[in-house]
Design goal:
alpha/beta; D-Maltodextrin-Binding Protein, domain 2; 6-stranded mixed sheet; 3-stranded antiparallel sheet; 15 strands
Length: 451
């Protein structure tokens, strides 16, 4: 971790116990060492100009979908939410520079050129450890996130997923504000399948849909999707608690059964392996596909494609070996995190904005604008949430999915799993080769991480 970013992280942590000095900005090491961010909430505090909000320029990274226009929310959803932030308090007048970066690409994009990283970043839960380990993000002051951390507002598992121990700072700290469950589920055409039929993939694949070319579709060779079959079979990644970087039993007897299922599905003519979201969604639209896997970020497109036949549900059971078991997608959360910054004023404004963008009001806006599943309890219980097929499926799937490990070793899984599925879908793949290919996969997953 760089000295300057480690220092700012320490200053952020000092807020927890000592309060703060005035946040007066400054880029030198001296100013960074003497001006810790104030421990305040985003609203109700006057700006440094005696009631006039302080202008502050912040870079903000959000997914592409949050940079688009949605009816009453204008031409850029995030710009609208930041304008609402500026109206909600008198301390800051944020002038944002908004850039589209997928939550799952947060670490990769930051690591490419840390000097150009945004001040506030939407990040997937599996990016958190790498962002922290690299010294790229700071903890968020406890006094700022008291409401966020209350269990009656956000699930404890969402808070725990962004809480990490720092031995140098001597404690555990919250590094992100949760704003949405991060999992995937199944959309389907309810004119082709009944609610009972979508409970079993065997039932779905066996059905004669006549003019429909494909019964089921998912990005099977994507390392975020394929593990659902191994978890369904009873396998573990990095031990039962997901924290052991030296343990993976995907090549066990149960893992071989899961690997065989993947291979058979990949070669089934009624299955379409989607490597491009737009292709699968277009197939839903023209009637050549009956069911497709994705997340709430796809809800608007899928709804338009299926029209009155739009439906969504948790993943079906599959028959692995001689047992019917439920597919278990990764279950995690998405967070707003804050760049470690030696400028105390920018650091504090970024914390306040991150809390706003991840908070109740913005969760309501995302839900209404584009069906993003919320974490805030009162929002998740609203009629907008329970009445949305995608949001309801996402929240239900999150409760039955497999907790996504948050250790650095996860970085080895994506390409390793993709390589196995690429082999499994090949014309030369045979059942007697599964064990050997899984051995290779596990060896690569457990290989030493190169820093």
């Amino acid at each position: 971790m760089k000295k300057s970013t480690k220092l700012m992280t320490l200053l952020m942590a000092m807020v927890l116990t000592t309060g703060s000095l005035a946040a007066c900005g400054g880029n030198s090491d001296d100013s960074a060492a003497t001006a810790a961010p104030q421990a305040s909430t985003a609203g109700g505090e006057e700006g440094s100009n005696g009631g006039t909000p302080t202008d502050v320029s912040l870079k903000v990274w959000v997914p592409q979908e949050d940079t688009q226009g949605y009816g009453e929310y204008g031409e850029n959803l995030t710009e609208y939410m930041i304008n609402e932030f500026n109206k909600s308090q008198t301390k800051w007048n944020v002038k944002p520079e908004i850039k589209p970066v997928a939550e799952g690409d947060a670490y990769k994009t930051v690591n490419t050129d840390p000097s150009k990283a945004a001040d506030v970043i939407a990040a997937a839960g599996d990016n958190m450890v790498q962002l922290i380990d690299g010294g790229y993000i700071s903890p968020i002051a406890d006094t700022k996130v008291e409401e966020v951390k209350k269990e009656e507002n956000n699930p404890s598992v969402a808070i725990e997923g962004a809480t990490f121990e720092d031995k140098d700072l001597g404690g555990k700290f919250l590094y992100g504000v949760p704003f949405s469950p991060n999992t995937w589920f199944m959309y389907y055409d309810k004119s082709k399948y009944s609610e009972e039929e979508v409970k079993s993939l065997e039932t779905m694949m066996a059905k004669d849909l006549k003019d429909t070319k494909y019964n089921f579709c998912m990005p099977l060779d994507n390392g975020w999707y394929a593990p659902a079959f191994f978890f369904a079979a009873g396998c573990n990644l990095f031990g039962e608690d997901g924290m052991n970087p030296e343990s993976c039993d995907f090549n066990s007897e149960a893992g071989v059964s899961a690997g065989k299922y993947i291979m058979d599905l990949a070669h089934n003519k009624k299955f379409f392996m989607d490597d491009n979201n737009s292709v699968g969604i277009n197939y839903l639209k023209d009637g050549s596909l009956a069911a497709w896997c994705g997340g709430t970020w796809n809800a608007e497109q899928v709804k338009k494609a299926l029209g009155e036949n739009y439906a969504a549900t948790v993943m079906p059971t599959v028959k692995i070996g001689d047992k019917d078991v439920s597919l278990q997608p990764y279950s995690s959360y998405k967070y707003f995190v804050v760049k470690a910054n030696d400028d105390a004023q920018i650091a504090e404004a970024a914390q306040d904005l991150a809390i706003w963008l991840g908070g109740k009001e913005c969760q309501e806006i995302r839900l209404k604008a584009r069906e993003v599943a919320p974490t805030w309890k009162s929002v998740s219980e609203s009629s907008e949430a329970t009445g949305s097929p995608a949001v309801a499926a996402c929240m239900a799937q999150g409760l039955t999915g497999h907790p996504q490990p948050g250790i650095v070793q996860m970085g080895n899984t994506w390409d390793s799993i993709k390589a196995f599925v690429t082999w499994a879908k090949g014309k030369d793949a045979k059942e007697d080769g599964i064990k050997g290919e899984l051995n290779k996969m596990v060896e690569n997953i457990l290989a030493e991480i190169k820093k």
